[in-house]
Amino acid sequence: MDKGENDLNGRYVIEPVAAKGDLQAIGSSLASDSLGFRAAEILDRLRSGIGFRLLAAVLLFSSLVTLTLTALQLYLDYDHEVGVIETRLDEIGRSYLASLGESLWALDQHQLQLQLNGIQRLPGIRAVEIREVIDRPDPIHISVGDRSARASIARDYPLDYMVRGTKRPIGILYVEATLTEVYQHLLNRTLVILASQAAKTFLVSLFILYIFHVLVTRHLVTIAAFVGSYNLARPPPPLQLSRRGPDKPDELDQVADAFNELCANLQRAYGDLQQVNAQLQQDLFVRQKAEQDAQLSEQRFRDYAETASDWFWETGPDHHFTYISERLDAFGIDRAALIGTSRIDTAINSGAEPEKWREHEAVLERHEPFRNFEYTRRDLAGRLRHVSISGRPVFAPDGRFLGYRGTGTDLTEQHETTERLRQSQKMDAIGQLTGGVAHDFNNVLTVITGTIEIIQEGVADRPELAAIAHLIDEAAVRGAEITSQLLTFARRQPLQPREVDINELVLDVCKLLKPMLGEHIEIDTLLASDAWSALADPSQLSAAIVNLAINARDAMPGGGKLVLESANVVIDDAAAFDDGVRAGDFVMIAITDTGQGIPPDIIDRVFEPFFTTKGVGRGTGLGLAMVYGFARQTGGAVKIESEQGRGTVVRLYLPRSEIRAPVKSASAPAIAAIGGQETILVVEDDPLVQGYVIAQLGGLGYKTLIASDAEAALALVDQGAEFDLLFTDVVMPGGMNGRELAEAVLESRPGMKVLYTSGYTDEFVHDGRLDTGVALLRKPYRRADLAQMIREVLSAK
Q: Where does the Histidine kinase domain lie (predicted)?
């Protein structure tokens, strides 16, 4: 800090030498010789003075006015010229239609040609064409002139002819008028107006600039020179302007008088400043040293506090914030808005935990320290923030309580990580449970769907019993669909992933949704033109989108809008995005509705199976669960965001297809239920399913050997029992499953044909796909499915 900069009370002082330099600096940029009007010198002044800016302002304003008036005049001229052409076209419509209609009815092409030539020669007419619309082999079509898609006005006139009092349309007259001459006329007029106005504006602006220089600018230069050369040690004579003075003092005279009075005041103050300057020089050093020590101490305190926590704070005796450090802004919380408020006013869980807050308030009233008090609040984006604070009371030297000082830490990331892990473990546990239920249910459905076919055949001649059998069959099909959804949620449903064009699939699904959702739902798409292909099972993906759309429809009973969107997404930090999701490229499908939204207290449960807010009989609660399981089994994720009263958006993330997967060829026509003479070893632990399979295979002509578990089956193998096919369930009691049984049989009998069956395919499903080379008949199955799979396996080489 230079000497004489300021005193302890904030007053500014200047040393004599410094005073001289500062006064010279005031007018140094304007100082100039005020005599003479040499052209080069005047031009140089204009470039750096207000005169040049005045000229630019006048020119700009004049140009804007000129352009506006010119545009208005051109518009009026254009409107007039176009009106003339429109009138000419209307005259053509009134004058020529009758004669042209008679010539066209008489098929007189020569007369039509003459009339069209006459119309084309009218001013401004570019092209004329007549077209016969009567249905006959060679209709008349005559045109004169060349059509143009630009700078033209076209009209179509219907040609009618009265036949027995009835007006019949027989043709169309097309007339096209050009606007080229109108545009050329307007262009020439524009150039003339702009050139004349530009010259006039420039001359007027130069005249204004000259008058401004004579009356104002040169006197300002004189004032600047006086101020720039003023010296307190040797003051010059009073300022005098070289000009013919007006009858009464004007603004320039007032400025000159003010400068002379200012100089006199400066002279008087100069002596006073010299007297106090010496004392201030001594006090200044002491103050600088004290300020440096205070800044060092404050910075040390900030470093310690901010290293130990995310931010620090202070409150007054009423426990309202008086200070919060700037680092709080990094967590999306408005620091300035918190000043003057209490902590309980900003918390959102104070009402949910009243006992906790009462204890905390009691601690504050007792003026005791506290540590790690946690509460929640929302940031500016509405995100829930978990906060932990610690504080100590502050007392004055006389014992008065002054408030609290403390630190704060943001625990949001830790809470969210813990919650994601808990939710993932919960959903995995539910998935295992539902998978087991689906397995047992599929065994029951296998017997029902199989035996109902036999019953239907037996009661085909009795309509009343056939209708009942049909209802049972439909119920079994519905049960199979439910178990399939359960297995999809449990991620145990075998998928057939391939490269899918997301945009094409979404558009195809939209065609199905329109009749399904109803006319009161508007469907719109926002598809990225560069959307990547995804690696997914197209049928399961279509089912997932339909399920989401149906949920959206139910949320909009009074109608609304459904938007399907696609986009490319790169997930860098997959751990923060979702547990089990690997970082990489994903294709996102978003389904957005304008419905009622989901309450915050249940949004975390919407993916659980059988959880639904719909009334009884309006849904199974498996739609979103199926979507969740499909997304996770595919290697992606599903996210849901909702706000009550404003709608819901569900985002489905699918992995990008890096390598084109082979597209399956069209499936072969269904093979008829053909039997055979081979012997089949049936391994099935469920007695009902076992009896059903034996009956069906016997009906198809096969011989059967029966075993209830793997141990009994291996005993038959060891005894030398002959069979051509091992047909085994996968999940069995006794410690050995169907796959392990097949491996043991193949060791002793290489090449043995194996067909697996199961309603729970976890053993053969990896990364959402059925293992290569595995023949699996999924429960429940029908007699035709059983016969076809057995023949396919026995016939395979």
A: 436-658
Query: Whole-angstrom Cα distance, residue 102 to residue 170?
Result: 10
Q: How far is Cα 42 from Cα 365, in angstroms, rounded to an integer?
A: 78
Find the mean pLDDT for residues 8-29.
Answer: 38
Do 489 and 624 touch, CB atoms closer than 8 A? no
pLDDT band for 669, please (50, 70, 90 cuts): very low
- Tell me the two tokens of residue 671: 């093979």
Distances (CA, A) of 74 to 59, 61, 188, 199, 200: 22, 20, 11, 20, 20
With H, G, I as helix, E, B as strand and everything else as coil, classify residue 84.
helix
Distance CA 170, CA 105 (A): 7
Highest mean pLDDT among 243-252, 313-322, 378-387, 603-612: 313-322
For the cut 60, the answer to whether the pLDDT of residue 580 exceeds it is: no
**Residue 432: HSE in the Cβ half-sphere, 13 Å Cα cutoff:** 5
**Contact between 57 and 209 (Cβ < 8 Å):** no
Q: Per-residue pLDDT tens for 86-98?
A: 888 888 888 888 8
Task: Provide the 10 A C-beta neighbour count for residue 84.
Answer: 13
| β partners of residue 639 | 651
**Residue-wise pLDDT tens digits, 308-350:** 567 888 989 888 988 888 878 778 788 788 888 887 777 766 6
Pair type for strands 321-324 and 370-378: unpaired
Residues 241 and 252 sit within 8 Å (Cβ to Cβ): yes
Helices (H), 372-501: 412-458, 463-489
Q: 526 or 733: which carries more pLDDT confidence?
A: 526
